[in-house]
Amino acid sequence: MNIEVRYLSKSGNTKKVAEAIAKALNVTAKPITEAVPAGTDVLFLGGALYGFGIDEELKTFINNLDGGIKNAAVFSTTAVVKSAYPQIKPLLVGKGITVLSAEFHCRGEFKFMHKGKPNAGDLADAGKFALEVTASLGGR
Fold first, then answer.
1. What does DSSP assign to residue 47?
2. Which residues are CB-contacts of 47 (< 8 A; sequence separation ≥ 6)?
3. Which of 62, 68, 71, 92 could bond to 97 as cystine, CB 3.0-4.6 Å?
4. Which pLDDT band, with edges at 50, 70 and 90, does 129 fall under?
5. Peptide bond before residue 118 is cis, with ω within 30 degrees of 0
6. Closest listed residue to residue 40, CA positions, set 84, 89, 98
7. 117 pLDDT exceeds 80?
8. What is the residue-wise DSSP string for 66-123?
9. Rounded CA gap, 106 and 122, in Å?
């Protein structure tokens, strides 16, 4: 199974989650500046909400995805809103990518809120999420 992990992280919270997912799957997490190869069975895509919306850079990345990605699993970190999934999913669907209903979200530290998040438990849960997703697709 060809698995890729991409993320956009301004504060480092989403990067931590991306790295936990990648570690569980024995792959490398890469920023969205790195292209996703054709033939990817599942793309784990992570972002956060900035001012209650996803970053324009993440929107551009999704809009520039060339075909060849079968499935996407969304993960996110936010300080206030519950999840970035509702904003990321329609963009991926618009590119013809099947977006899995399973998502991972945890709080991220922002200024005085959610100190220490994501924590070790959150990162362990992110790894479990990745393994469950790939198992559900018949992989690893």
1. E
2. 7, 8, 14, 54, 55, 58, 76, 84, 88
3. 92
4. very high
5. yes
6. 98
7. no
8. -S-EEEEEEEEEESSSS-SHHHHHHHHHHTTPEEEEEEEEEE--BTTBSTT-S-HHHH
9. 7
Q: In the 8-state DSSP scheme, what is residue 36?
A: P
Among 118, 139, 138, which residue's Cα sits nearest to residue 26?
A: 139
Per-residue model confidence as pLDDT tens digits over 19-64: 999 999 999 999 999 999 989 999 999 987 766 678 899 999 999 9
Are 72 and 101 contacting, i.e. CB atoms less than 8 angstroms apart?
Answer: no
Q: Packing angle between helix 13-25 and helix 120-136, nearest 10 degrees?
A: 50
What does the alpha-carbon distance between residue 47 and residue 37 come to, in Å, rounded to a whole number? 19
Pick 108 or 62 by higher pLDDT.
Answer: 62
* pTM beyond 0.85, yes or no: yes
Residue 114 has pLDDT above 70, yes or no: no
